Amino acid sequence: MKTFKKAAAIHDISCFGRCSLTVALPILSAAGVNCSVVPTAVLSTHTGGFDGFTYRDLTEDILPIAKHWQSLGLEFDALYSGFLGSTEQVEILEVFIKMFRRPETVVLVDPVMGDNGKLYKTFSQNFPGEMAKLCRMADLITPNMTEAALLINESYREGPYTREYIESTIKKLASLGGESRQIVLTGVYFSEKELGAAAYDGTVVRYAMAERVPQQYPGTGDVFASALLAALMNGADLSNGTESAVKFAADCIKLTFEAGTDPRFGVNFEAILAKKMSNMIQYGV
Ligand code: PXL
After folding, report:
1. Phi and psi for 109 in degrees, rounded to 5?
2. Structure pTM?
């Protein structure tokens, strides 16, 4: 894949809790990608375990932002969407993608909708059907096992999984339609000791696995998808990019687990990014 350097990330801002834009922006920036942002909503925290979060829906701001950008002649090598603020934002994003897609643009849709077999509480029951439409416009989608089941309208199954189940889920996701779509399915595991992803490039499925810790953290899907896009934009192919993103997410999870912090506070991706930038820190530039 060609080297890409400018991205537009379309996710919410969860003011506290390390997910969405507060994760995508630093990871892409650290990978040398100029990342512009379109906030879909502003929440005081993410919705994964905090009561009483505030919620400012920014549906009305997205098209005016896009139109202003278009009037400035801005161009992007990647369009990367995540958590949407309302069902109507699906149609708005379809317009957004049409406005900014060029032949070489990578459109990554992370169909953020749920986890552990449940739709996130901010979404209505018709949201998965709408999200499936947006996925049809993507070059690459990165659902977790819950989101995959919602997209193909099947009931959620808990792991450990078999290769047959993973590969039949991928085939069903592929048959949702769309042009030359690649799929990276996350939350894949065949035993309790490992966790990883299955990458389908349209031809073969390749697995990337890492050590599993007995704790889940909100926002790890965003860390993973952002690291994957960062790798792709620096020239990795889908399989290498998936390996690198699984390793990055697993390193963040392990460090956080060892520190024993409140899982709702997300993963310590900063420390892993900082390690990668150790030269810069050492020399103070
Ligand atoms: O990481 C996914 C995510 C993104 N944005 C918000 C969330 C979640 C997961 O809970 O609540 C607001």
Report:
1. -110, 115
2. 0.96
Whole-angstrom distance, CA of residue 118 vs CA of residue 133: 20
Peptide bond connecting 160 to the previous residue in cis, omega within 30 degrees of 0: yes
Q: Which two tokens stand for residue 202?
A: 């349209």
Task: Check: CB of residue 252 under 8 Å from CB of residue 268.
Answer: yes
Ligand 1 centroid to Cα of residue 218, in Å, is 7
β-strand partners of 196:
188, 209
Phi, psi of 260 (to 5 degrees): 70, 25
41, with CB counted inside 10 A (0-12, 13-18, 19+), is: buried
Instruction: Give, for ligand 1, the residue of 12, 16, 19, 55 to mutate: max count of ligand atoms closer than 8 Å to Cβ.
Output: 19
Run means of pLDDT, 10 residues per run, the chain, 285 residues: 78 98 97 96 97 97 98 98 98 98 96 97 96 96 98 97 98 84 97 97 97 97 97 95 97 98 98 82 61
